[in-house]
Amino acid sequence: MDEIFADGKFSHSRQVGCLEMALARYTGARHVIGVNSGTDALVLLLKACGLRPGDRVLVPAYSFVATASSVVLAGGRPVFTDIDPDTYAMHPDRIADAAADGARFMLPVHLFSRMADMTALSAYAADRGITLLEDSAEGIGMRQHGVHAGLHGRGGVLSFFPSKTLGALGDAGAVLTDDADLADHVAALRHHGRTGRTLAHFPGIANESRHIGHNSKMDDLQAAVLLAKLTVLDEDIRHRAVLARRYDEGLRGVPGITRLPAVTDAPDEVFYVYLIETDRRDELAAHLQDRGIGTETYYPRPLHLQPCFAETGHRPGDFPVAEAASRRALALPLYADLTEAEVDRVCAAVRAFHAGRVPA
Ligand SMILES: *Cc1c(COP(=O)(O)O)cnc(C)c1O
Q1: Which GO-annotated molecular functions does the record name (predicted)?
Q2: Quick one: 173 and 64 in the same domain?
Q3: Does the C-beta of 161 come closer than 6 Å to ligand 1?
């Protein structure tokens, strides 16, 4: 940040390029393009992949709203599917044939601490000639069969929203891809469509705009912050996993909790969020709030029931797994500075609630 202030270069400084290289090393992506949010990363990725107006894009009914709104912003039509109850993600077994019919893209999401089954989804997409992309906004550090989230199809995204595992001091995001042409296209779209090429009839003038572009560049100060935080990311991830195991021990067998996140012993497990399910979710959240413990409900309204997607014509009951998760899921505190003693305090408060020592 000092360097940016000293140079007075508040845009087009070195920071974004340095971060892109560091993220490429971290994720194994050939190309990383820094943009101003995870949402814009999705919009630009979809456009650069050749999404045409009205194209159908398969998306899960359970996700952050930007998964499906980015499809609309890019000119496409979201087609909702139910989720797999184990991963909370899109799965071929839950995609109705009628939904897949005519779909050109699919955009599975990796939520909380699990990745979608990318082997099954890749095979499904390949069979039907569907382009596979990933909303890996929550997926930094997550790998399946050694491949980082976002690199199982043509491209994926990262979000650096402050609450994410790698969070900036504001908004930022990135596109990940191994495809050089796609990377060039996204890089042009983030900056007014500029390709950086010189025009034949105006030699030396490098500001050809070949596409109608956005202004979605990553903020240079955020890039500087992220470069610094990336150096401690693996440490943060390990600490989160320790806390997740502690939650598991503290909450196992508590009657009323219908699901824990199934922590394994895998050394590289990444917890963006520690999510439990309980039938009395809202009462538990209020109980914890009264004791100074913040929680979050991810995601209280499934996407097919959001007013902004009313055109899709869905009703309650259409995607029962997504709807059940929306009613029952609660994220307990999990962040890099949280201590094991604080996790114990949260567990004690959750246990007290379910033991009925607290008026229902
Ligand atoms: C955070 C998030 C986004 C959007 O990222 P922003 O950087 O907030 O725009 C998209 N999809 C999912 C699943 C997310 O969690």
Answers
A1: transaminase activity
A2: yes
A3: yes
Q: For residue 171, which atom of ligand 1 is closest to its CA?
A: 7
Cis (ω within 30 of 0) for the bond into 299? yes
Same domain, 219 and 261: no
Please state, in angstroms and rounded to a whole number, the distance separating the CA atoms of residues 172 and 218: 6
How do residues 115-136 score in pLDDT, each as one tens digit?
999 999 999 999 999 999 999 9
Secondary structure E strands in the chain: 31-35, 56-60, 77-81, 103-106, 131-134, 143-144, 147-148, 155-159, 173-177, 257-259, 274-278, 329-332
Residues 242 and 209 in one domain: no
pLDDT digits (tens, 9 = 90+) for 290-348: 999 999 999 999 999 999 999 999 999 999 999 999 999 999 999 999 999 999 999 99
Q: Comparing C-alpha atoms, which of 37, 62, 359 is closest to residue 190?
A: 37
Residue type, 214: H
Which structural domain range is residue 15 located in? Answer: 2-230
CA–CA gap between residue 267 and residue 340 (Å, rounded): 19
Q: pLDDT tens across 33-80, in order?
A: 999 999 999 999 999 999 999 999 999 999 999 999 999 999 999 999
Domain ends where: 191, 208, 230?
Answer: 230
Q: Mark which of 200, 230, 260 sits at the end of a domain.
A: 230
Ligand 1 pocket, residue 171 CB under 6 Å: yes
- 161 CA: nearest ligand 1 atom: 7
